[in-house]
Amino acid sequence: MSITLNIIIAVLLVFTIGYCSILYKRLSDLRRDRNELEKLAATFNEATERAEASILKLHSATETIVASLQNGITEASGKIDDLKYLVERGEATADLLEGAVRGIEKNRNAVSGSEGMDGLSGAATAVGAGEKAASEAKAEKAQMDKAKEKSEAAAELFKALQAVR
Known about the structure:
Elements: H1 2-113, H2 119-164
Helix pairs in contact: 1-2
């Protein structure tokens, strides 16, 4: 019986030695993987730091670009106001010139009908007629704008009524 017991203990010791060698190999692999994991973590940390630095640079660049665009918008806004003023002045001048041309044409027609009219007084009459024609043109334009606004308001009212149905 003692020999059997010794054989059983020997077999168990062989299994234990085998299990210990397997365990030792797995622990070695784990240590090796741990070193690789530490290297991977260090690389990831470096990448994170570079990304944070890049984000800060992008934020700084964005602020610079926004400031530059704001300056450009402010400049453009001033230029737009200047251009609107020039266009208004140009339209007024064009209306006056158009009225003067119409007055001169009316005066030519009147002069050709009466030969005794002095050329200088005819020109003065033409300018006066031109100014009158220009003021009439402005009044017509104002009436057309009012009519357009009324028609737009009527169209919006019609749309609203249809939407209610």
